[in-house]
Amino acid sequence: MGLLGKSLKINSMEIKNRFLRSATVENMADIEGYVADALLKLYYDLARGGTGLIVTGATSVEASGKAFVNQMSAYDDKFIPGLKKLAKVVHTYGDGAKCAVQIFHQGTAGYGYSYGALDGGYRLNDLKEADILKTIVAFGQAARRVKEAGFDAVAVHGAHGYLLSEFLSPVTNNRNDHWGGGLENRMRFSIEVYSAIREQVGNDFPVLWKLNTNDYLEGGNTIKEYIQVAKRLAELGVDLIELSGGIKEQSKLRAKLRAEAGAKEAYFLQAIEVMREAVVNTKTTLALTGGIRSLPVMEELLEKGVDLIGICRPLICEPDLPARLLFSPDKRSSKCTSCNLCLHHIARQPVKCVEYDPFRSVLKKI
């Protein structure tokens, strides 16, 4: 099975292999944010598909933080029973698979992957101190609910132009108080969110963090700034940092990065060495996501210092890809073509692979 099949311990959590299902918005909850049967079926398929660590799609920590109508929520204790069902599905059918809930706040509509997103009226630069502190507390409480629901870890969405990312980037954060200005101030929100989460879940519960390596926007953060952010998060005790990138127009950006990467596949390959150095004296592990499709590339990335291979779109069309690559003679690359139709589909409908939808050919004839 090679390096991909080796187990890995992150804090108190042991992962059976090096596959990470990178958080993917499902848009399958009911209209109030409760876990619905469609979500349970999706995670049943993922659990049986062989992924070692499954991270759910972004789950809102406040009612105003939802990006999509049918997005999961964790802003109230009333959501715990449904989340418990989801964790139980993964643990029952995943043959040792571990699972985490990604908690997030959309922030200002129009950033991230929020094509056609709801506008909750949230404006980072207009927020009052009390509003900021309230949202920090909300992250901590959402993490508590994730733990109480029986998940193995909590993941924080700190990338892609959502709220934590907006605080970090000088493009989206124009505040002139202690929440904005220099990088130290712009990091304050992330640091306070982490502190609030730790206070609720304790030191033995793994906290995962998705972080940009570059904003890919003029005037935005580059790898230079994100090295400092990663170093600080690692020193504080974040257990895993998942490396990604980008803030706006993600489909166009991913297509461009994919073309530039070519046979190397991984968009953010160049960040591995410097990010590994940033966390070298800590217990923080690293995951890399973005464009990874083939077994040789996955093994190469692990040899270069990545601990987990993050995959998103390939698992939409092939939820059993990890099991196929690890245990079957079929070692072909993922059939995912990175067409990005799935990304646009979730703006109004449940996530699915549009390219390989068997009903697509029927629809074309209508």
Write a structural description.
This protein has 366 residues and is α/β, with parallel strands linked by helices. It has one domain: Alpha-Beta Barrel (TIM Barrel). The protein is 37% helix and 13% strand. The chain contains 14 helices and 11 strands. Strands 3-4-6-7-8-9-10-11 form an 8-stranded parallel beta barrel, surrounded by 6 helices. A two-stranded antiparallel ribbon has the order 1-2. It is globular. The N and C termini lie far apart (46 Å).
Task: Describe the structure concisely for a colleague.
With about 375 residues, the protein is α/β, with parallel strands linked by helices. It is about 35% helix and about 15% strand. The protein is built from 14 helices and eleven strands.
Class by helix and strand content? alpha/beta
Spatial extent as radius of gyration: 19 Å
CATH architecture label: Alpha-Beta Barrel
Question: What is the name of the CATH superfamily?
Answer: Aldolase class I
| Mean of residue pLDDT values | 92
Strand content of the residues, in percent? 5-15%
How can the largest sheet be summarized? Answer: 8 strands, parallel, barrel
Please render the helix and strand layout as text:
Layout: E1 8-10, E2 13-15, E3 19-21, H1 37-48, E4 53-55, E5 59-60, H2 80-93, E6 98-104, H3 129-148, E7 153-158, H4 163-168, H5 183-186, H6 188-201, E8 207-212, H7 223-236, E9 240-244, H8 250-261, H9 272-278, E10 285-289, H10 295-303, E11 308-311, H11 313-317, H12 321-327, H13 341-345, H14 360-365
Parallel strand pairs: 3-4, 3-11, 4-6, 5-6, 6-7, 7-8, 8-9, 9-10, 10-11
Antiparallel strand pairs: 1-2
